[in-house]
Amino acid sequence: MIISPATRAYHVTRHSGATLHERPHGAPLARLLATVTPHPLETSFSQSSDLVPGTPRRPKKSGTIAEVFGGLQGREPVVLPERFAVLKQQICKNPELFEARWRSVLRELENEVQVIGQKGSEVVPQVAYSDIEKGLSVQQVQEIKKRGVVIVKGGVPKEVRRDLLPAFLLSTTSPSSIGSSRWKQSNIDYVAANKDRVTARARAHPALVTTQAALLGLWHTSSTAAVGLRTPISYFDRLRIRPHDPSVFTLGAHVDGGGVERWEDPGFRARILGTEGVCSVFRPWQGWTALSHTAAREGTLQVLPMLTLASAYIMLRPFFARCPGAPARSLAADDWAPDLASTAFPGSVPAKAQELNDESHPHLVLPKTLVSIPRVEPGDQVYWHCDVVHVVEAEHTGSGDSSVLYIPAVPLTLQNAAYLRDQRETFKRGQPSLDFPGGEGEAYFVGRVKAEDVKDKEAQRMFGLAPFDVPAGASESEKNLVDAANRVLFA
């Protein structure tokens, strides 16, 4: 099975969603929440047409990133149907054991909230790219696993860093470069730009590829798992340009990849609800590379740096409610009791990202524990586990644009190879990748990169334009995976 780099008693894994697995030395949270099914990487592909490796996916309808989040569209709280109360009863077979684990999580949370409140951004791990090259220390690895986030400083040469954002802006300012590929939210530009020369060069930069392989190496697989953690592929995401002004961004704290689907289906088959907001590849690390310097209060990323503990709390939260008559803001464990009768799944909206605030998840004390990442310079990389609670700062009071290029760490798997095959076709046509709202995208951009413009062999492999090589010292399962992935891509 695939497990996350989590360290304590709580393990969270993600493959188009999340599956919980038991720690041999700690509280078996998975057993508390549901019967654990085999991880999707170890099972046959779903018969859904957009998951079968031999079946190309269809583009999504046109839209914007706003459709991913309930809060961006001013929705009233969603009242879920009665089947969600039944779901809670099906999952919680032993309320007493659930409550014992709940109290244990609350005790740990109280301590961790104090630590983060005192240290703030200092708890976010930072490593030099030279540490990535020589190998992370045991202490660095432990801290990254605990926090679920890391900043990698350096690695991209100064001349490349200096030219990234100006060159990108120059390459996308022709009249035919402005249109459906951009979405503005409170004066923030989200640019679905993947086919310009700047982003293409950045996605295959050796420092980024080396970093991704190192971070993927923090994950663990069974000997037979069909996943190539040493073989990153390129998942085309977006670029964000945020001008300096006092505008307020309305996207709240959230976890990517669906809401109620985390509990509704053991394998987290989010397509049950037809969501527009789920990353359909196995993506252990979301990430971005800074194109400008960005610091606190400059529209940067904020994270809740306690991956395993927060994940356990989020999964348990729907099963408890504040007792009638308890103080309105009480966090005391004695003022909370099991709630298996209501349909409430706080912050969860079908087919949307899981959202959190101080009302829905009060024990996280988000006003205190959501911390801005330390200052980054152009070329610095930021990665976070896809179950980390995060948000973009509400205001940008700095003096320049805050710009980042989203480049996650994604390994080779059969399902990922199928996505890469279909992404390759949208790349050739200049259209948005298939996890994103459709439309003409960059089809009519002047000077956009064509497949024949990608000369670097590593970039060709990462973009699905050339066959993958078998890594040195590969296991039999790795060899079989590379062979099968190449058949998916080039059969």
Automatic annotation (TrEMBL):
Positions of transmembrane segments: none
Pfam family name, one: Gig2-like
Name by which UniProt lists this protein: DUF1479-domain-containing protein
Originating organism: Fomitopsis schrenkii (Brown rot fungus)
Entry superkingdom: Eukaryota
InterPro entries in the record: Gig2-like, IPNS-like_sf
